[in-house]
Amino acid sequence: MSSSTVWRNWSRIESVTPARVAYPSSPDEVVQAIAAARADGLRVKPIGAGHSFTGIAVAPGVQLDLRNLQGVLAVDEQRHRVKLAAGTHLYRLPELLKPYGLALQNMGDIDAQTIAGATSTGTHGTGHAFGGLATQIVALTLATADGRVLEISENSNPELLDAARLGLGALGVLLDITVQCVPAFQLQAIEKPEPLAEVLAQWEQRALGADHFEFYWFPHTQTALTKTNTRLPMDAPRKPLGGFQRWMDDDFMSNTVFNWVCHVGKAAPALTPPINRLAQRLTNNREFTDVSTSVFTTKREVRFREMEYALPREEVPDVLRALDRLITQNGWRISFPVEVRVAAPDDIWLSTAHGRESGYVAIHRFFKEDPHTYFRLAEQIFRAHGGRPHWGKMHYQDASTLAPTYPRFGDFLAVRDKLDPERVFANDYLDRVLGA
Q1: The FAD-binding PCMH-type domain covers which part of the protein (predicted)?
Q2: 336-363 in b/e burial notation, b at 16+ Cβ within 10 A?
Q3: Would you call 1 exposed, middle or buried from its count of C-beta atoms within 10 A (0-12, 13-18, 19+)?
Q4: Mean pLDDT calculated for residue range 355-362
Q5: CA-CA distance, 6 to 339, in Å (whole number)?
Q6: Which residues pair with 224 in a beta bridge?
Q7: What share of the chain is helix, strand, coil (3-state, %, to 5)?
Q8: What are the residue ranges of helices labelled H in 240-371?
Q9: Are 159 and 203 in contact (CB under 8 A)?
Q10: Is residue 145 helix, strand or coil?
Q11: What is the DSSP letter of 372?
């Protein structure tokens, strides 16, 4: 235990001063910290990288910092399964999995999160045949409010698996996670600007026609910056970006220059449209082949706030057109791009892709700009098209509006009542989205 200071999440939109902070280095110490918190009448919340944009990890009571629970705990090489300590950061996975010739089947574009935080909030990548991170989890261990260490897998408490592998931190503290990996692979990446109207007109064809497809749209332009990735075996010819080109594109242009652009846009909003048009013209056409993690993930140093909604896949073009009209009609100057991705349906109870082919639309604002007016009106569009908000990104819904969009919402609440009837793991955010 230690005295606490102010904790802030990465986007600097949430902060709290916990009553105390614990740094457990073993499952037993997690259980002890939970017991001590209950004895003092305090709630418990674990934290990872603080990369959620909501208050899901805010801990006014006891904050469990899981930095000492990292690394590979066990490997089933025959079945390609790897057990990881819950505090393991995603950016460490390439080095941890390389000795076994394994990789995650799919990843998002940010790897700063811990694996526990990423799965608990529904982190996902893109690809019509691939689900989010939680779909890759086959087992986990949970420290519960009553002091138990609960193993959950296909063979042990299987009825809890689809609740616990995307549990919002509401059911207990994740201690370890077993991931179904795949043999390491490469991705051929083709990145190029294309007319937005054509991409939207061909949306279903583009989404289904590649292993991994996504695009970015800078408001005030009519260009989509498309990314098409094709899976290749590790023995395929490798053609990585040169060191200077990667630095120029992914570090200097995407971070240093873009940070300058965002500051200019805040100081002089009228300059945002021409700057966005210049940015889309300067975006390089590039094609390269590299190991999957070097293609899936990108370096993000410019702070922002984000809202992302999962939609029925076929709704994406109409939603983008409505966003364009909304921005134009309000005269807003939006410097950050809109990101569009796709994912396979799954059976996980609180997954945003539960039971349907899904498209994802994410909107952003520079962290020094007020996002709320833009986000609230955009959310009306998302909800009108059947959207479900990403649990780790900003939204304004509560349990009364979320429950009808998830067929198993009531089942999840029943599991929560069973595992945490006294709401030891609750906080204000969970009280809002799940009910107190």
Answers
A1: 14-184
A2: bbbbbbbbbbbebbbbbbbebbbbbbbb
A3: exposed
A4: 98
A5: 32
A6: 194, 217
A7: 35, 25, 40
A8: 243-246, 258-267, 272-282, 292-296, 316-330
A9: no
A10: coil
A11: H
Local structure of 220: helix, strand or coil: coil
Question: Is residue 85 within a helix (H) or strand (E), and if so which, with residue range?
Answer: strand 81-85
Give the number of other CB atoms < 10 A from CB of residue 380.
13
Q: b/e map of 392-430 (b: 16 or more CB within 10 Å)?
A: bbbbebeeeebbebbebbeebbebbeebbeebbbbbebb
* pLDDT tens digits, 390-417: 999 999 999 999 999 999 999 999 999 9
| Number of C-beta neighbours around residue 8 at 10 A | 12
Beta bridge partners of 15: 8
Which tens digits make up the pLDDT trace of 261-316? 667 667 777 767 776 666 666 566 889 999 999 999 987 778 889 999 999 999 99
Whether 249 shows a pLDDT value over 80: the answer reads no
- Could you give the residue ranges of the DSSP H alpha helices within 40-154? 93-97, 115-121
DSSP H helices in 52-187: 93-97, 115-121, 161-164
Element (H, E) at 306: strand 304-312
Does the global pTM surpass 0.70?
A: yes
| Contact status, residue 170 vs residue 419, Cβ threshold 8 Å | no
The pLDDT tens digits for 113-152 are 999 999 999 999 999 999 999 999 999 999 999 999 999 9
